[in-house]
Structures are given as C-alpha cells and as structure tokens.
## 1
Amino acid sequence: MSELHTVNKSPFEKSSLESCLGHAQEGSAVLLLEDGVYGAAKGAAAVEAKMKAATGIKLYVLGPDFKARGLSADRLIDGVEMVDYAGFVDLAAEHDKVVAWV
Amino acid sequence: MAIDVDGKSYETDEEGYLVNISDWVPGVAEVMAKEDDLELTDDHWEILNFLREYYEEYQIAPAVRVLTKAVGKKLGKEKGNSKYLYSLFPYGPGKQACRYAGLPKPTGCI
Amino acid sequence: MSEIKKFMYLNRRAPYGTIYAWESLEVVLIGAAFEQDVSLAFVDDGVYQIMKGQDTAEVGMKNFSPTYSALGDYEVTKLYVEKESLEERGLTIDDLMDLKWEDEDEDWAEKDSIILVSREELSQAMSEQDVVFSF
C-alpha cells in the first residue's frame, strides 16, 4: 500500500513533521502544505537535518502555500519537489491513501 | 442590500459599504453621494482617490485621524485637518469617504 | 487624561495557516486609537508574519503583509524581532520587510520600526510592560 502523507503544521510549533517522517515507510510520499511548508525551507539546521534523513521517501511542498509565506523556489531544501494544486491532486490519485498529520 | 449604478446592482453590507472592493466604479460614489444629497466636486474626488491609493498600498481603510495626517502630508496642511475634511464629508471623512470610495469601514474607527 | 500604559502584542504564530496573525494586527490598529505606548513583539513563528515577498495570489487569501507598513501611520513604531527566533528558522533581518515610520516632528524623516533584540533583551522589554496581549 503506498501512502501520501500530508503535514500542515509548522515544524517549529508542533511535532507533526517529525512524527510523520518517523512513521512514513520507504516508497511513500510526504507533502508539506499550509504552515507545514516551513519544513521545506533551507537554513533551519534542526529541521533540515530531519528532512535530509528521510531517505527512500519522496518529499513535496505545495508551491502556492510556499510562495504565500514569502518563500521562493531557491529556498527549497535540496531533494524537495514543488507541486501546484493539480500536482497535489495527482499525488493523491497515485497513492492508495492519504494520511494527514495535523 | 445593494445599490444600483447605471443599471447594474452592487452588493453592500448592512452599513452601506460595498461588499467587494473590486466591484467599485466611480458611479458608485456618485450614487451614494446623491443619496446623501451631496454633489461630488474635484475636492471630494481628490480625497476619494487618495483613499483608494491608500487601500491599494496598505490593504486597509485608514482611521480618520490617520487619514487626516496622511492627507496633510500628501496634499498639504490646509487639507490635512478635520475642519476641511468634515466640510467635504459631513457624515465623517473616515466612514463616509471610505464608503464612497468602495473601501470597507475604516480599521481603527471606534 | 488618564495615565499612559505600556501595551505589548506578542505574536508567535505564522500567518495564513491560522487567523491569529491577522486578528492581532486588527486589534493593534483598533487599539491604536487609545493612544497608549504600544509595541509589537515577533517571536517564534511570529517572525514569519513580516517576511518579505509574500504572494498569496494562488492561495486565494488576502495578503495582509502590506498592512504592517501602515503601522507607523497609526503611531505604532516599535516592532521587536527576536534574533534567536530568526536564527532557529535560518532567517536574517534581510528576509523581513523594511518597515519604517515617519517622524512628523522631524519633517517626516523615515526611521526603522524594526528593533532586533536578543531573547534576553526582549524578556527585559516584556517585564517593563503593563499589559502583554498574546496571539
């Protein structure tokens, strides 16, 4: 069963991202959206280390939410792919289920 | 509620402010002024245009004391005072002028 | 004339994901009418509220970041930003909007509204307040 995990809370405020990465199995995908997108921005050492340790998991960020918060594509952590709303729909369709870490 | 301008209907809230600022056309101000028995002159339009620019830049309708100060800075001291602004908009330069300009009720008018 | 009190608005949430940031800003603008000694503090995720370059076109929400530039008109001129909060997020002051206020008494000279402070300095400023509002 392939899973798409979504995280919509800031990694500095809640442990949603950490829990999600800890539970996501190899071959699954993690999409950061809403306040969760801060987890995909370069420069925050502790968060960046957690993201980079997530091997075997595809990492995505929702572009519109990233841009709304003043973050541009050049601030993305290497290995994170930006998707738009249509990309979000595709991801949801490609996976067997969606697990939301709220 | 709604007001009719040139055969088109514009939705307003219970206090008469436009619901969608992007709907605004100059005719909205004309119709609202007519309802208040007020004729809009260039002096009125100078303030209405100033308010629309303020909203465009800051995304809020300024409180009346903020408007007064900002008008004084931009258009001169003789216009940046409540006597002048109330002479143009007797129902209150903040509320009345913002309403004509299609802005929401001023933030910080109490 | 009643005594002037020191009010601090403590902002700790990121914008857009929740309503706190916008609610705080509205309360500040409304509260400014009372002519008290007002300051804002941006701590933790609150520093994200004043990030440069916010563009909400695609999310269909109002971009209220330009409104922070109007704070000076409302005579709210002290915006404390905590250094440690920026650093934890990999941000610097250059990532923030260049917020200014104009001093009417000095022919509208532009002055910085943002005051970069350490956690210790902020805690000191907080202890000097009569009231701290949390958002």
Note: Residues 6-134 of chain C form a domain with the Hypothetical Protein Ychn; Chain: A, fold (CATH 3.40.1260.10).
## 2
Amino acid sequence: MHKMWWKILGSVLVLYATIAGFLATVPELPILHETIRNLYFHVPMWFAMIVLFSISVFYSIKVLRSNNPLDDIKAVESVNTGIVFGILGIVTGSVWAKFTWGQAWSFDVKQNFAAIALLLYFAYLVLRNAIDEEQKRAKISAIYNIFAYPMMVVLLFVLPRLQDSLHPGNGGNPGFNSYDLDSRMRMVFYPACLGWIIIGYWIYTLLFRLRSIDKNSAL
Amino acid sequence: MKKISTTLLLVLAAVQLFAQTATAPDSLYASDKIYVVVICAGIILLGLIIFLFSIDRRLKKIEKKSSGKI
C-alpha cells in the first residue's frame, strides 16, 4: 500500500478531471463552444507523451555510460508507452479538428509535424528490431534516440510557430492560456495533465517490469 | 468514516450550482442528459483503472515467483 500512493493519486486525478471536464463550467468561445472541454483530454495525451520520451532519452544517455541492458529496456518501453499516447493525441486532435477546423486532416503544420515526430519514434523501433546483437542495438538506438528527442521538440514546439497554423499557440495564434484558459479551467486542466502523466508513467513501469521478467527467465 | 461520507455528500450538493449558467447552454447541456454520458465515461475509466491495478497485482505475483527461482 505504501508504494501505491502515486498510482491512487493518478487514478483519482484522472477520474476527477474526466468528471469535472464534462460538468464544470467553461467560458463561452466562438467556434469552439463546448468542444473546449477537449483541452482536458487531448492536451494531456501530448504532455504524457513528452514526459515518457524525456524518460526515454534520459535512459538512452545513461545506457551509453553504464552499458546496463536494463537501462536499454527502460528506454524502449517508455518510447512504446509514449507512442500510444502520441497516437491517442493525434487521433483526438483530428476528431477535434473535424468539428472546429472543418476537416479531420487539413494538412495544418502542427498536424503534419506531429505526425512526423511520431514517425521519428516509429523509426526508432524499426531501427532496434533491425539489429540482432544486443550491445550494438542498445548503443545505436540510444544514439538515435538522443538525436530524435530534440528533433521531436523542434517539430512540435518550434517549427509550427514559424508558419501559419490553425492550432492555438502557433503561427501567430495565441495559446489558450493567454485569453480564455481562465482559473476555472485551470482547476481541471492541471490535474488532468498531472493525472495522465502519472498513468502514463505507471503503464511504462508495468511494461518495463514485464520485459525484465521476460529477460530474467530467458537467462 | 460516517463523518467523511456526510461531508462528501454535502460537498456534492454544491455541484448543482455549477449547472446554473446565466446564459443559454448548448443543446447537449440543455436537456441535462449530459449526466448519462458522464456516468458512462466515468465507469469506463474506473474499469480501466481497476484493470490496471489488477495487472499490477498479477505482475507482482510473477515477480515474486521469478525472484525466488533465481
């Protein structure tokens, strides 16, 4: 029980954010109307993905120094979990776009670059599977991951800002927080982000434990 | 426990205040049927979380077994 407190915290936060996400009042906005509630569901997916990819790059750097195969497993399993959250983010994003921008995929820069960022991490997994020797695989994929991470950050947060985009916070559009993320929404939005990050981390630990048992039994 | 549950119930009574908006709400909210959706989404999420806890427990059992073997 003493080690479980953060799992319970994450569960409670996510449940709270979902229920309050439907029921709490939101500011009235043009075009968006009630779909602004998607902010509590769509955005935390991306935050969880970024935290998981950050964990991955941390262990990729570590594995280069330690040569510990467990660090390599940590790096790959956090990418596996992060990709799931990224796919959920991009799918919820296009559903939201369908009803506010008119098209599910309008080839908006933010959408395109988000898709490319995900492809970068698909390539990471493909690269891993292409190398049979364990030590070599750990090293090469760690180096790839260290390059992929800043690319992902640039694709998601820098390049969309330099061009015209419909996405809030990009292409001269202000982010939600500057004019309509009022304090009522913050009360739901921040717990939602924290909760989903914790749930994402939890799933990553499950996958890591599973893989390390698998490795132990193979020895 | 009784005190806590009564407090919780009284706190929940205030939730109804959120429903009173000054302007006309969107159609989804106008009929008050949104609560049905909230209950469903909450049940699904709760179910998934309980599932996650059960996977965690099963994994812990296997971990214990495999650590005893080595």
Note: DSSP finds four helices and no strands in chain B.
